[in-house]
Design a protein that fits this description.
The complex is a heterodimer of chains A (about 325) and B (about 325).
Chain A lengths: L5 H26 L14 H10 L6 E3 L6 H6 L3 H8 L33 H14 L6 E6 L6 H12 L4 E7 L2 E2 L2 E2 L20 E5 L3 H16 L5 E6 L17 H9 L2 H11 L5 H24 L7 H4 L15
Parallel strand pairs in A: 1-2, 2-3, 3-7, 6-7
Antiparallel strand pairs in A: 4-5
Chain B lengths: L2 E3 H15 L3 E5 L15 H5 L4 E3 L4 H12 L4 E5 L10 H8 L2 H4 L9 E5 L15 H5 L5 E3 L4 H13 L4 E5 L7 E3 L13 E4 L4 E5 L4 H13 L4 E5 L2 E3 L3 H11 L2 E4 L8 H12 L9 E3 L10 H7 L3 H11 L3
Parallel strand pairs in B: 2-3, 2-4, 4-5, 5-7, 6-7, 10-11, 10-13, 13-14
Antiparallel strand pairs in B: 1-8, 6-12, 9-11
Classes of the chains: A alpha/beta (about 325), B alpha/beta (about 325).
Amino acid sequence: MKKVTKETYLNWYEEMLFWRKFEDKLAQVYIQQKVRGFLHLYNGQEAILAGALHVMDLSKDKMITAYRNHVQPIGMGVDPKRVMAELFGKATGTSQGLGGSMHIFSKEKGFYGGHGIVGGQIPLGAGMAFGDKYHKREAVTLCFFGDGAARQGSLHETFNMAMLWKLPVVFCVENNGYAMGTSVKRTANHEDIWKLGLGYEMPCGPVDAMNPVAVAEAMDEAIDRARRGDGPTFLELKTYRYRGHSMSDAQHYRTKDEVAEYQKIDPIVQVKDILLEKKYATEKEIKIIDKRVKERVAECEKFADESPYPDKSVMYDVVYEQEDYPFLSHKL
Amino acid sequence: MRTIQFREAICEAMSEEMRRDESVYLMGEEVAEYNGAYKASKGMLDEFGADRVIDTPIAELGFGGIGVGSTMTGCRPIIEYMTFNFSLVGIDQIINNAAKIRQMSGGQFPCPIVFRGPTGSAGQLGATHSQAFENWFANTPGLKVVVPSNPYDAKGLLKASIRDNDPVIFMESEQMYGDKGEVPDGEYVLPIGVADVKREGTDVTIVSFGKIIKEAYKAAEELEKDGISCEIIDLRTVRPMDHKAIFDSVKKTNRLVILEEAWPFGNVATEITYQVQENCFDYLDAPIIKINTADTPAPYSPVLLKEWLPDHEDVVKAVKKVLYR
């Protein structure tokens, strides 16, 4: 695995903090009604993305996930201003304002969505890997989904074929404890989701996903296995989300003490402690990073605010590749 | 011109396109070693190998989604369903992913995929194996729906569907695979979205598509003996629909009968009826008649099934009714 250095920690701190603050900003503008629809935030789960990015080959590896998907494309290299603009429904957004919060895409940067149907992206992730294998690209797909999606039939059909065909894919369940308001223990007779891999003889195991180093190590092994043609891996990334499932979630299903317990092992706090402990940065230097993050987030909001809404014709431009598709009329 | 079976036309179309473009592959249940449940992929495993003609487990949701996902990394899959009745367990991948991925990504991810297999009834197969979902798929923006009725159209339209950069639902029939028809030796491609006048006439327009159109042919022969001249339009593509072909014919004959093997509520015939009343209101000399299956699940017993399905006698009756005879 690529070494975890001072630079790695500094980068992790700034990026994870940026993702956190980006999401906080979205929550704020949601209340101002600049962003509408559902809004699923990543707060608490940042170590997963940080660890994965450390070991991916961003020149060819790809990522696909569900609807908690704002910060992954940013990590992959998409301009965060364009992600913010997508949530504002603006023409400058990643999908020109057609996708919204749950459907962020960037083909250029290897981020393949952004999917709103729970578990619907699991076969897609295997299919992306199928296409890469078909074209002999030695690229790997990281296919993310939540603990709720692990109960969908699509997972089982996909696991079976991915193992049968040794597809270069890493299946990653982000187990944040709750499928909306239903805890993992209330959805199955077992709680170790990673064991679902055993029935398919797929290499599998649990990972401490509050720690980016642990994530990177597990991912590195899995990506390496996929790249050398030995097929998929199933990782259960044990994580936690601080915010509700979406914005209108009173969170009666858990206690404040439980949230506080996880905040003690917050990935950003863990990395910050290491920065200070190992003298990679002083308090003063960290404050400079914090300030820079705040400014970067503000720039995103400004860009999204000032961007124009899409032209009405775009609605018809993006449905079919066929340029003159004869849509039926719907209004006088 | 040589005569070949419908299944051979399908096989030729797929094979020619796979020779032409290496990114095209065929995936489905029994497509490879078994040579296709209806032998529509006979010999293809031998020619193209197991990397491109791929047997799957019985997992329509999974392999449909893998097909869609592979379009995102440059493949052009042909996904075969043994019947479109089985597509229902995988329909999420068609409706929520194939039809929408281009739009949701703001045009970044086109989805060049063909989902093909038989539709409709095929003898006494009972309720779950006799369904026609053309209107379900045709209702969905993002999809195209092609339903050929003979080997010539099937070959030319399947080749067009495989070359199309949008997802195409291509619907065949168990009862057509053995049908023979003239198909030229050389290559040809037929355009999607263009109807075909299968029989010219002056007194009444009959619009139909798929295998049930054969009942219209029989009816037209019979009606000709009574001096009634029927024009038969084969839609060939349900979405997008060739409205002009329908309107032109109705403006000539002033009468319309629509024959569709599907449940009557909100079906393709209903849509045609709306379009014709909106665009040809002043040309109509009689109310439009739709002939469909009964508004019930398909029954098994032969007597009941005959009653359930529309046939040429229903067409004769309907034509006489719109002619007030």
